[in-house]
Specification:
Blueprint (H helix, E strand, L loop, with lengths): L2 H24 L2 H8 E9 L4 E3 L2 H12 L3 E15 L2 E13 L12 E15 L2 E17 L10
Parallel strand pairs: 1-6
Antiparallel strand pairs: 1-2, 3-4, 4-5, 5-6
Helix pairs in contact: 1-2
């Protein structure tokens, strides 16, 4: 991979992650299918003991788990290491805010989560472009609380 190909691959991987966040925050599961995930993908969230694979099970589980959630996700400062011309390991610093209604609380009963941590990911280049192959979320800090809807939690 020459320098130009490497820069184009970096841009493509960053765009996949941007679509991941947009798709999750807007519950656009078709976008996830078309432009984010590899068909044999894996999603791991150790803090809640969940591992989902392949793609259709990821979408089924996540679309159910987020329920009525409003979320805001940010990914920052990717560290991208190409392991071949068609594979990369990426570490993203992340921050997320999750807002839930009392009718669909988070795993501990809270309605608000503010998390900080990292996504540990692998990407593969397929015929349709770069796609997310695996992701594992590790949070360094989590702030959870009960927030009422009259304090800006829901539109």
């Amino acid at each position: 991979m020459d320098d130009i190909d490497r820069l184009l691959a970096i841009e493509a991987i960053e765009l996949v992650k941007a679509r991941y966040f947009y798709g999750l925050d807007h519950k656009d599961w078709d976008l996830w299918r078309r432009e984010v995930w590899a068909p044999d993908a894996r999603l791991e969230v150790p803090e809640v003991g969940e591992v989902y694979e392949p793609l259709e099970k990821i979408i089924e589980a996540v679309s159910h788990d987020v329920g009525d959630q409003i979320s805001v996700h940010h990914g920052h400062m990717p560290i991208i290491e190409f392991t071949s011309d068609t594979e990369a390991k990426v570490l993203w610093a992340m921050e997320d805010r999750l807002y839930r209604t009392p009718e669909f609380p988070l795993y501990d009963g809270s309605t608000y989560l503010h998390g900080f941590g990292h996504y540990h990911e692998t990407y593969v280049k397929l015929g349709v472009g770069w796609r997310l192959k695996s992701t594992r979320l590790s949070r360094l800090r989590v702030e959870m609380a009960n927030v009422s809807s009259d304090k800006g939690g829901w539109a």
